[in-house]
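Quick check before the chapter quiz. The format below is the same one you will see on the exam, so make sure you can read both the input and the output lines.
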Amino acid sequence: MTPTALFTLSRQFHEDDRLVAVVSTPWGQAAVWSAATLLLFFYDRTTAALIAPLLALIMGFPTHRHLILSLGGVYVFYQAVVERQRINPGWEADRWLALLLTMALVGGGLYACYRAARSYERLPRLVRRHPLLTLHAIVWMVFVSLLAIPRHGHLMATSIWLAAACFPFLIWRCGYMLLSGQRRRATDSRFREHFFYLWPAYGGTDVPYGKGYDYLQQTAAETMTDRARAQLAGLKLLILAWMWQGALWMINGFVHGLPVDGIPSELSGYHLDVPRLSALIGGQAPLHSSPAWAWASLFVELITRTLKLAIAGHVIIGCLRLFGFHVFRNTYRPLLSQSVVEFWNRFYYYFKELLVEFFFFPTYASYFKTRPRLRLFAATMAAAFLGNVYYHVLRDIGHLAAAGLAGAWSLLFPRVFYSLLLALGIYVSLLRERKRRGRTWPQNGPWGVFLRIKRIAGVWLFYALIHIWNADPPRLTFAQRTDFFLSLFGIR
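Here is the expected output.
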């Protein structure tokens, strides 16, 4: 085998038919389970302790995959409610009764949403025409009603607050379920075919990784060969997660000079001492006389942010593939993107899909049909600006409410400004992509390489700069972020 063929096989081993045939055997399944458990164990033992038995059961009983994952989801749901009780003083009164009542309230709400999706034609006309608006209106009515319910005191009040705390995690998943009902695809579905993604045992954030019922049904592997192929693809992502974790350790140790386990002490003194972006913005690290270090910090932050998102997404999607769902990865080579819109599509795929599904398409399909540019502008602003801000308001509703009106605006305004810049950049990029259609560009040779590097550099520059208003921690003010941006160009 030539070196080129060996390299190709190492990158695409999940597509090798001979390896797929081996993995399809009982011994091959045992090898996949062992490798996945080992990779997950050294990543996070808690994750491994949950995924390993679920994977073993699914390998043994593949036709009961949804039921097994739903049982795992019940356990994760239970742990999430317990954690919310722990971090909120006063919510531990009547702990077990409150826990059971909360699970009953949330479970009942999810089942009601499932019944609505399954019997979509029987819903009132207003709900059928605007299912997502109805869902969000109900959630906000619950949030407003919380103003009249004491946060602590009696069992029912505690349970209602605990249930409401679950809404930001569930609302987008329920939205996907209602869309399945609107498309007439949930009519013959069972509750367990939905619950496993409503509270996923394979992990996730408020963004639904793997989207919802429609996409998961399309990507579900039904034959042993397809399952083996999906499992190998999942192993590949777990391996990539470890590779990117190693790269992140190297950046932290040798670029930022942070203590990292595994780096020998005799090498710990060899680092570039590039300050963290948050320290520069917040004034904890002095700005060097040359802005070169600030620029270096800016681009290193873009790389580390991409690596962190890729690591977390690879583990979640890797587990989902191991369970037999050959879904698309969350982060796919965004740093090689040659346009702003391509980066947005590759960087956080499932967040992009959420914004497109719930904000871009409804706006694009409903408004300015005779004015194409305005139609595209309105849909882009609805998704990347308004939808982006709205998602983060829902995600951080507890912190924003606790901060008061002025404090909430101070926390939110940098995100609003960032989302505005992002939306404008995506719109301009979409227009430029339209103009490029049908035009030929040199792909090879020095000029083609130069053009690709130039485009990639422009994308890096755009996202690195706008990230100044999105960088953690949220307490960094808009003024601090803007002052740092100006300092990059020598304006103090």
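If your answer matched, good. Residues 397-436 form the longest helix (40 residues).
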